[in-house]
Specification:
Two copies of one chain form a homodimer.
Chain A: E1 7-11, H1 18-28, E2 32-34, E3 37-39, E4 53-55, H2 58-66, E5 70-76, E6 79-84, H3 85-93, E7 97-101, H4 104-112, E8 118-123, H5 127-135, H6 142-156, E9 164-167, H7 171-185, H8 189-200
Parallel strand pairs in A: 1-7, 1-8, 2-7, 3-4, 8-9
Antiparallel strand pairs in A: 3-6, 5-6
């Protein structure tokens, strides 16, 4: 009997290094997939439908919203992005662990629905360091950087309800911490007890869902 | 401001490899100490008072029991063993992480007192393997092995209320899992949020004790 898949919900303010960290842990754990979202935006360059996103029309997206198929969705710059409940449920039932890279608002929507998930927040070591990292992206104006910093502050204030906070000071240490969270969650009693009891012929436990 | 120390309570049936695993993770994390218990038994060979145990008289031990100084204690073969609340509180306040190697009954006493602790259960991969490991200790008779196996079964049935279960099939993998649990628990929001908020000037959060 296989254990259920684990959903890791990962949020961070822009500039905290979330994408780098997620890519690094997916490299470490080949069995760890990334959740594929639905979007109405146009496919770019070498993006692949079903891999980078599920690209759908606005009508299809609206119908999915109306049908309650999304656990969270948002409209950004005129394009819609959403995470389908079916995507998460399927991975869970098939015993696949997945990362869902999502902003704080989206994560809060998931949290309110009490979906079984591990919430991980990636934080910068300081606001000065975050400013330096944002300013390093030479394409952004002072105004854009200031707006991002203000936005980051608002997101950081939400970190307190996540299960884990990884402060991304040194990248190697942050990757190691994130990898440890993934390895540790795989040892959680609610996932391991059923395997153990089948192997050892133990009775079912009241608190453990099978 | 330093974070609080973490107490890891570790139990396992005899033969599961608990001592080897605990020694291995203490080697990996030099800042991780082992909790020192009080005992009334005689000091043996090169045991050091205050390092291996706090060796005390039966009168002193009884006075500590009467004074409610132990979070758990037990009498085994005429000798008393106990864990002092002060030992755990001091480590917590000083930000020292400690391992407490303790049997299931002792761990259950701690659990009932709602002390902040991470409960880790070390399990053998199967009862056959446990029998092999116990039989490998040539000093024990068949009867002793049978009694230990029966006892192990009773302890394994309690694994369901621990936070983590590490199945010790391959030692290296089990050490890695245990080390991951320790690294992951250090990223728990209740420990990290206060550090983060001081660094970033965030507000206190209602759910986080400081």
């Amino acid at each position: 009997m296989e254990r259920q898949g684990i959903l890791y919900v990962v949020s961070a303010p822009s500039g905290a290094g979330k994408t780098t960290l997620c890519d690094a842990v997916v490299d470490i754990y080949p069995s760890l997939g990334q959740s594929v979202s639905f979007t109405t935006r146009q496919r770019r360059g070498n993006e692949v439908d079903g891999v980078d996103y599920h690209f759908v029309s606005r009508e299809r997206f609206d119908a999915m919203v109306a049908g309650g198929e999304f656990v969270e969705w948002a409209e950004v710059h005129g394009n819609c992005y959403g995470t389908a409940l079916a995507t998460l449920r399927q991975a869970q039932q098939q015993g696949r662990d997945i990362l869902l890279d999502i902003d704080v608002q989206g994560a809060a929507q998931l949290k309110r629905q009490h979906l079984p998930a591990v919430f991980v927040f990636i934080a910068p070591p300081s606001l000065d360091e975050l400013r330096r990292r944002l300013a390093g992206r030479a394409t952004d104006s002072e105004d854009v950087i200031a707006a991002r910093l203000e936005n980051a502050r608002g997101e950081l204030e939400q970190a307190h309800w996540y299960d884990y906070i990884i402060i991304n000071d040194q990248l190697d240490a942050a990757v190691a911490s994130f990898a440890a969270v993934i390895a540790a969650e795989r040892c959680r009693t609610r996932l391991v007890y059923t395997t153990l009891r089948h192997r050892l012929g133990l009775p079912a436990a009241a608190g453990i869902q099978e």
